[in-house]
């Protein structure tokens, strides 16, 4: 089991496979998301969080950044569930222009969100309007997801219901 006291940085197999998928932006009709092949380092994550919030007292250890959109907004696993593995942590998005939100309750739901044609930025900024399903992302979710498929709308609604104050909590950290 992963150590969620702060330093588990092993890249889950699903994210490693996601990094190999060419996600189609389709001139704005697809998903604006570029997955990484490894998590950002702890130092990079802390620097980013401090810069994003303007708060030099913060520590980025609760986050594992694993991708970005075209503007530099970041998707991360938010390690908030003590004692649970990385794949069971919620996925959050912090946009380059201030958009913020929980987009999926765990990595399994995130894979189904992508399979439904919705990326993390789209989920936060546009409310999980279903996009174009990508066969490669559907196949990836079928291989790695630990639960049955749900729609992007169901996934985002469940994540927001579980963590309703996330946006306000992040805003409170800003200086």
Structural descriptors:
175 residues; alpha+beta; five-stranded antiparallel beta sheet
General description of the model:
By secondary structure, the chain is α+β, with helices and mostly antiparallel strands. The chain has one domain (13-173). It has seven helices and five strands, in the order αβαββββααααα. The protein has helices at 13-19, 42-53, 107-115, 120-126, 135-144, 152-162, 166-173, and strands at 34-35, 63-68, 74-78, 91-94, 100-104. Strands 1-2-3-4-5 form a five-stranded antiparallel sheet, sandwiched between helices. α3 (107-115) packs antiparallel against α5 (135-144) and α3 (107-115) packs antiparallel against α6. The longest helix is centred in the N-terminal third of the chain and has 12 residues, at 42-53. The N and C termini lie far apart (36 Å). Residues 1-6 have low confidence and may be disordered.
């Amino acid at each position: 089991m992963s150590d969620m006291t702060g330093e588990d940085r092993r890249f889950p197999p699903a994210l490693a496979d996601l990094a190999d998928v060419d996600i189609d932006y389709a001139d704005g009709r697809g998903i604006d998301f570029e997955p990484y092949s490894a998590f950002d380092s702890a130092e990079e994550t802390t620097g980013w969080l401090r810069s994003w919030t303007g708060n030099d007292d913060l520590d980025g250890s609760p986050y594992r950044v694993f991708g970005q959109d075209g503007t530099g907004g970041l998707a991360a696993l938010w390690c908030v569930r003590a004692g649970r593995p990385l794949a069971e942590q919620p996925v959050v998005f912090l946009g380059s222009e201030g958009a913020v939100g929980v987009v999926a309750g765990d990595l399994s739901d995130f894979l189904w969100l992508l399979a439904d044609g919705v990326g993390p930025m789209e989920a936060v900024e546009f409310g999980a309007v279903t996009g174009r399903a990508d066969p490669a992302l559907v196949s990836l979710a079928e291989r790695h997801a630990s639960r049955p498929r749900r729609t992007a709308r169901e996934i985002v609604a469940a994540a927001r219901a579980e963590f309703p104050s996330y946006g306000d909590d992040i805003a409170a950290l800003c200086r």
